[in-house]
Amino acid sequence: MYQQVAADLRQAITDGAYGSGGRLPAEGDLARRYGVSRGTVRQALAVLRAEGLVTSRRGTRRVVLGSEGTQSFGELLSFTRWARSIDEEPGGRVVSIERHPADATEREQLRLDPRATVYRMLRVRTLSDRPVMIERTVYPESVGALVAALDPDTVSHTVRLEEQGVMIADAHHTIDLVRADADDARLLGCRPGDPLLRERRRSTDPAGAPIEWSDDRYVPGTMAFTVHSSAATGSLARRRATPEDRDADAGPGQAPPPAR
């Protein structure tokens, strides 16, 4: 039902029924209109928020953002969706996925009890068969069990989890540089100590419960992130790296890292 509600609201937004910057009806009004519960309406709004169509602020009527010139939340969250948006063929190979007691950092990031267990996944992502990124993702046990049951050749874990009702509504990103360790070098074909672009991400569901904590490492020169901020909103977008990005990464007096 929430998918039907989301589809109807999406079409209305696309048709300009609410206008850019207009407000959607209140959750209670939408629930009465569609004959569903408020929980169903919130799920539908979470989908629209993930697509970058409405604001994410809870407790108020949602404001229509539109999608002109922006990258959807789904493309930013999902490597597969992003790769296909730039006409690349995404791929992935699960190196390992194992169940372990959660360590202190994992318990803090995923808000887990002291005796909780997690699933840790190591995965290589490719663009047109070229390794460009390593994912080290930690899942709470309930979500990790679903991921562990997927076919190892599954291209998009995000899409498969959505099909099973696991929706990601919000994500917090931290981006910095790290040096490649031995596993990074072996899996990406670089040298130990080479710089890698790192994105650490904690994702939560519509109720605010953490779904994943991930440490993703990219080969330099393959992609970049752009941040747009304003008094009204802020956005983060992933894109192909340009020669200018590679020059900037190199710093003064240094050769730019090779594009692999």
From TrEMBL:
<dbReference type="Pfam" id="PF00392">
    <property type="entry name" value="GntR"/>
</dbReference>
<dbReference type="InterPro" id="IPR036390">
    <property type="entry name" value="WH_DNA-bd_sf"/>
</dbReference>
<keyword id="KW-0238">DNA-binding</keyword>
<protein>
    <submittedName>
        <fullName>GntR family transcriptional regulator</fullName>
    </submittedName>
</protein>
<feature type="domain" description="HTH gntR-type">
    <location>
        <begin position="1"/>
        <end position="68"/>
    </location>
</feature>
<keyword id="KW-0804">Transcription</keyword>
<dbReference type="GO" id="GO:0045892">
    <property type="term" value="P:negative regulation of DNA-templated transcription"/>
</dbReference>
<dbReference type="Pfam" id="PF07702">
    <property type="entry name" value="UTRA"/>
</dbReference>
<dbReference type="GO" id="GO:0003677">
    <property type="term" value="F:DNA binding"/>
</dbReference>
<dbReference type="InterPro" id="IPR028978">
    <property type="entry name" value="Chorismate_lyase_/UTRA_dom_sf"/>
</dbReference>
<dbReference type="InterPro" id="IPR036388">
    <property type="entry name" value="WH-like_DNA-bd_sf"/>
</dbReference>
<dbReference type="InterPro" id="IPR000524">
    <property type="entry name" value="Tscrpt_reg_HTH_GntR"/>
</dbReference>
<dbReference type="GO" id="GO:0003700">
    <property type="term" value="F:DNA-binding transcription factor activity"/>
</dbReference>
<dbReference type="InterPro" id="IPR050679">
    <property type="entry name" value="Bact_HTH_transcr_reg"/>
</dbReference>
<feature type="region of interest" description="Disordered">
    <location>
        <begin position="229"/>
        <end position="260"/>
    </location>
</feature>
<keyword id="KW-0805">Transcription regulation</keyword>
<dbReference type="InterPro" id="IPR011663">
    <property type="entry name" value="UTRA"/>
</dbReference>
